Amino acid sequence: MRTQIAAANWKMNLTFQQGEKLLDDILAAKIKLKDHQKTIFAVPYPYLTMTRSEVTDEKNYYAAGQNCHHKRSGAFTGEVSVEMLHSLKINYCIVGHSERREHFAETNSMVAEKVNLCLGNFISPIFCCGEALPVREAETQNEFVAQQLKESLFHLTADQIRNVVIAYEPIWAIGTGKTATTEQAQEMHAHLRSIIAVQYSVAVANQVPILYGGSVKANNARELFSCPDVDGGLVGGASLVAADFIEIIRSLK
Ligand code: PEP
Asked: Is 97 tagged catalytic?
């Protein structure tokens, strides 16, 4: 079975102590992940080492960056490089989150640079794509996300794209409490898989995990994850509440 992932995105929330307690509470549930299941905590940079130590003895639990800079190193005060994440033994990093695209003017080509740096440093990028409401209303979401993949991922080789996790996050569903229906999620995930198949092969497309993000909650995760092409979720708000995220992890196929 394809890898199934519950990924938490804490964003700019929680103090260090609150974060540590949240991890303790989640790990206290002692959910034993199967070989094909993973749980990933994308935490603020200062919490990465703590998070990595918390999960170090837990099978298939990982810490992740929420972002990285698109240049290798240099005079970029306040930024964090992919090499720095690698030196902390971090295995995953979110790239191209819609909040980065909106508030920090990140473009598809900058995201492509981040993807390259991640893969060159043994970090799997969790590549976010997804359309805003006007694009959905104009029914051009398929073309929109296809362009995002084309400009940020499709320069990769087949071996490289196998190490990418895709997160489809319709912007109109992020933090709004408005979730895509299972039909909308499945339709888009199948579309994403089909364009990867055309670019690479069906075999490659069947290996790339595609997560859904956008108001995943404890009470809708199981239904969303039951869609054949939905391989888990990237979760913001509900990942900040131990009981909710525990239920989301338990909802993985
Ligand atoms: C996100 O941050 O990627 C996200 C999907 O947030 P939320 O679950 O709060 O909608």
From this structure: yes
- How many angstroms from the chain centroid is the CA of residue 18? 22
Q: Answer for the pair 221, 249: CB distance below 8 angstroms, yes or no.
A: no
Closest ligand 1 atom, CA of 11? 2
Q: What is the CATH number of the domain that holds 227?
A: 3.20.20.70
Number of compact structural domains in the chain: 1
Look up the domain containing 235 and give its range: 4-250
How big is the chain, counted in residues?
253
CA–CA separation, 3 vs 23, rounded Å?
22
Using the mean position of ligand 1's atoms as its centre, give its distance from the Cα of residue 85 in Å.
22
Listed as ranges, residues in the chain with pLDDT below 50 are none
What is the number of other CB atoms lying within 10 angstroms of the CB of residue 12? 7
Task: For the chain, give percent helix, strand, coil, nearest 5.
Answer: 45, 15, 40
Token pair of 23 as six digits:
């991890």
114 alpha carbon – ligand 1 mean position (Å): 21
175 lines ligand 1 (CB under 6 A): yes
CA 97 / ligand 1 centre spacing (Å)? 10
Q: How far apart are CA 174 and CA 167, in angstroms?
A: 12
- For residue range 117-137, list pLDDT tens digits in order: 999 999 999 999 999 999 999
Atom 7 in ligand 1: residue holding the nearest Cα: 236
pLDDT score, position 144: 98
**pTM of the full predicted structure?**
0.97
> Active site includes 169?
yes
pLDDT at 20: 98
Catalytic residue among 97, 131, 189, 247: 97
185: three-class secondary structure by DSSP: helix
Give the pLDDT confidence score for residue 175 in this predicted structure.
82
